Amino acid sequence: MKKFLVVLAIAAIVCAFVVSAQTEERGSIQINNTPLGQEVYYVKGDKGFYIPVRAVCEAIGCMVEWIDETQTVVIKRNGEEARIQIGAESFSFEGNGNHYTSYRCNPATFIDGKTYAPLSVILECFDGARKHFEDTGLLLIVAYPTYKDASVLVDLGIISQEDFEKEGYITNAEALWTISDAIGWDKDDVDLEEWPRYTRLRDYDKEFKRMVLSLVHGPINYDEIPQIKFEENMTEYEAVLYCTRLIYDTYGCTDVGDRHYTETEDVYFRAAMKNIIDTANATNAQNSIERKAFYNILYRTMCYEYSRGGYSLTTDRYICDHFEKTIDLLNN
User: What is the pTM of this model?
Assistant: First the structure.
């Protein structure tokens, strides 16, 4: 056993030398809205980004354990577990009721006495995205929220804590503003001349009109604007319809036709299939929707998982941008 450990240690040292020799740069790391500090840095080489396992994984809510006998780091979160062994060209992962499955990867190694693993392995196991800002050297890691409710919308700056705690219903105007803030579309890139002149809403201010027009061909259709009762409570059907259309707009190639459904049963069926509502039961379709129920549907929409030769999340479009805004604050 001692001979085996000596050989393994030598292999780890060689592996660490290889990674260091390939190093192009080192830089700081930010997890969502939180910089990890100057002492925590990534290493970027020919084989991609390597990150310090414990610092990054604990920052995204994981438990990290080191098994010295096998030189293995064990990472756990929400019933999922990854095992990454120093020098190994594969890692194992267990989750969603499945037994351990091995996947190929570039080997983890030691750098400056710390365990470093490919960032791609961590993102694959525990859901996330990255963006590298070459001008500042900053690596932004977006860890997809594991919240069980819509409180994440507060952390993303989409709604205030006060709004989140409000009881009662939400009006169409409030809900559409919230959707607009969530998806971040450019409200200035619209032509106010397109506002329907024949609608009773011609007296709304320009900012409101810009917001509504920016949502056309997304959650709403142009010819629906005159029929929307902005000051009245949003119905459950309207909330489900708009959010289902948001998913279609993101990746239309996988959801062809979803935008054209307007029949209640069809809309609810598609929404349930996409898991933004629990069931296709449309009993309360025409009832006013509770504010918190609307927030929950919107959150589930933003984290919808779609298939396109693999799996990803609408988070890539709808959530990353909210975290990226903090980069401007850091740079300034």
Answer: 0.61
Q: What token pair was written down for 312? A: 């990803």
- Per-residue pLDDT reduced to its tens digit, 30-86: 988 788 988 999 999 888 999 999 999 999 889 999 999 999 999 998 788 999 999
Q: How large is the greatest C-alpha to C-alpha distance in the chain, in angstroms?
A: 85
**Last residue of one domain, picked from the residues 85, 119, 143:** 143
Whole-angstrom CA distances from 113 to 2, 53, 139, 151, 272 are 21, 12, 21, 38, 49
C-beta separation of 44 from 57 below 8 A:
no
Extract the tokens encoding 114. 């710390």
Structural domain including 130 reads 24-143
Do 237 and 310 belong together in one domain?
yes
CA distance 128 to 123: 5
**Same structural domain for residues 156 and 277?**
yes
